[in-house]
Structures
1.
Amino acid sequence: MTDSQKIQIAKMRTAGDGYGTIAQKLGIPLNTVKSFCRRNDIGGDIAPAAKVTKEITHCENCGREIRQIAKKKKKRFCCDKCRNAWWNSHLGQVKRKTVYHFTCPQCGKEFHIYGDNRRKYCSHYCYIAARFKGGDGHE
């Protein structure tokens, strides 16, 4: 991608053109345009055809303004990075439906795990001890 194409992408994106339109007009692959815009934080995660409401909320992680889109679910976060950061720091609010209860065959300790019903050992240490017949469980 040339420097002039990069400048054109930035101008077209700020004017409200979508990734597909830009890719078609410049003869560049769609994913190239998308990744360039994301890497350079060239705005517009709202499609030009989407009707933006006057309602403005703030990202629950960073506080950045979010313009809501009419007839769509309300956005709570401005981007995936903020969404992941917020959920990782608020694990107690995650509704975990599948929690499994096991007893480690190596050390006998009871443990609880979310999501993986095939797990046998409470830790990597116990797995290695059982697998290679060394050790007696936890240190």
Note: The first strand starts at residue 52 and ends at 58.
2.
Amino acid sequence: MHKGYLRITALLGALSVTLGAFAAHYLKSILIEKDVQIFETGVRYQMYHSLALGLVAILYKEFPNKFMKWAGLFFILGITLFSGSLYLFTYKNANHLQGLQWVGPITPLGGILFIAGWLCFALGIKHKYEK
């Protein structure tokens, strides 16, 4: 489990840097500042939770339990829903697309998954072995 999460950490971290550079060098030239800030929020939370996923993966060797597994999964799903919805929202605005009203409500679901990940992480540190 921990090696898989470490690989995902590396890929999500690399993607965060790539998307951050994309925002800084390209999006700022085509979007209004508010939309760039929304995109950058997605990048920032992706990087934070990529690093959290890496920490979960490293600490899993010391705390091998279901809570640590769930923490990692919740961080991955949170990145997908929270950051992904912000990227999609920015794409929608950049291309002046109509519709996609479902994108907005997804963002808070991703935030809830982040919170669940942190709570599972706390429980995982509390429980040394699988319960």
Note: The chain has one domain: 2-126.
3.
Amino acid sequence: MEVRIRLQKAGKKANKANNYRIVALPRHGGRDGRTLDILGFYDPAKKPAVFSVNKERINAWVAKGARMTETVRSLLKKAK
């Protein structure tokens, strides 16, 4: 089973206050499908944007063969 580390949409749809979870998902699962692990969150609506991640869990998933999306990779690069 191929696993992706990606963003999962959360928050209220009505006022467009979207925030995102950083999650590990099976590759063929949908964007809002069942998650294997919640690794952090990202809220771009706040000024400055709030970003929190468990780097140990991400490294553990990458060691198991999970791949990060480009968006998650760029967020992690900015966080370092």
Note: The two ends are 29 Å apart (CA to CA).
